[in-house]
From TrEMBL, chains A, B:
Keywords: Transferase. Residues 3-82 form the GST N-terminal domain. GO terms for molecular function: glutathione transferase activity. The lineage of its organism: Eukaryota, Viridiplantae, Streptophyta, Embryophyta, Tracheophyta. It catalyses: RX + glutathione = an S-substituted glutathione + a halide anion + H(+). Its EC number is 2.5.1.18. Belongs to the GST superfamily. Tau family. This is glutathione transferase. Residues 87-210 form the GST C-terminal domain. It comes from Helianthus annuus (Common sunflower).
Length: 220, 220
């Protein structure tokens, strides 16, 4: 039986882009089901009753939620380019950094944007990003994964692409190139990969979305 | 070369108990290094520079932080009783639930305790715990892992043991047996396992610690 792979997505979430990137790296063919998050489908609610969120990957009828859990599943099931290292210690190290980015860096950047650059939020986000900056400086490598992108790079897709667009929409400037030159260089290298470009929402579409949200907030 | 395994711990953290439980399940011999968290050792700061927290497992000189990352490492490296299922879908499912407990249930219960039973916090914690209650009711199994404890049970060690002690120390009652009968039954089964008993901090010691914190807060 051929694999049936469906991805429930929304066309603009960095969590969805993480999963798409893993699927494209593995060369997995999938059907994209775009959800209207203001009117979620019965399927989405059935497949992810706990969080009721995208992304959900449904593989031969079996649903999986949570982007990093889905990526580990994809890496387990489909051969080809490995997404996690094979060595147990390197694997643990990649999981540590993916979790650090997901649980600590991304929320710190969201908070800068949500608060329109609140001083304390900026201090905290700077501190977290400086840790990534130092990591890239010490390793001297092109990607967090070394010569090739791995779980950590995929986890960091938000940092590479979203902040600059959100900041343009909101008219703020937090994430500057001179503050984090190594992270900026990494983002350039990452966004230059064809597989990354294939899996990102179009810039104009994201910008229009965040501008609309910004305008709605200003009217409220 | 024999394995050198050191666990940096504090003698009372549920995150440490998770890791000890995984080590005991696998029969791994380790040296316990008890940290004074008000005066952290140079080793702890060197081994976990990002979070500066216990637990840290150091295996043949290589440090690993974050309890769930450490448990996956232990399961990868040492054979014997499996902690995660082998089947990729069951593995993803276990990771999903361990993450739900770690990221959603535990913080909801902490908030009830921190706020001394704030109404909104209680509502939210009830909602999260009801999801676990339903999961145990539907599965009809003894443990989240089935007949034996697995990653999900280990992730939930806090729920089995800590809340009742914290509530005794603070003189509040949130976590009642009649509200969550299946979760309570699971906790009894879990706490009856010898391997779990071996790895928990003594009740009297935890109670004294939380009473002291409660009294310090009341004086402040």
């Amino acid at each position: 039986m051929a694999d049936e792979v469906k991805l429930y997505e929304d066309g603009r979430s960095p969590y969805v882009s993480r999963v798409k990137l893993a699927l494209h790296l593995k060369g997995v063919k999938y059907e994209s089901v775009v959800e209207d998050l203001s009117n979620k489908s019965a399927d989405l609610l059935k497949y992810n009753p706990v969080y009721k969120k995208v992304p959900v990957l449904v593989h031969n009828g079996n649903p999986i939620s949570e982007s990093l859990v889905i990526i580990e599943y994809i890496d387990n099931v489909w051969k080809g380019v490995p997404i996690l290292p094979c060595d147990p210690y390197e694997k643990a190290d990649a999981r540590f950094w993916a979790k650090f980015i997901a649980d600590t860096c991304n929320p710190a950047i969201y908070e800068v944007h949500r608060s329109y650059g609140n001083e304390q939020a900026v201090l905290e986000a700077n501190e977290k990003l400086q840790i990534l900056e130092n990591k890239l400086r010490v390793s001297g490598q092109k990607f967090f994964g070394g010569d090739n992108i791995n779980l950590v790079d995929i986890a960091a897709v938000y940092i590479a692409y979203w902040p600059e667009i959100v900041e343009e929409a909101k008219g703020i400037k937090f994430f500057t190139r001179d503050k984090f030159p190594k992270v900026s260089e990494w983002a350039d290298n990452f966004l230059n990969c064809q597989v990354v470009q294939e899996t990102l929402p179009p810039r104009a579409q994201l910008l229009a979305y965040f501008k609309k949200r910004h305008e709605a907030r200003n009217k409220a």
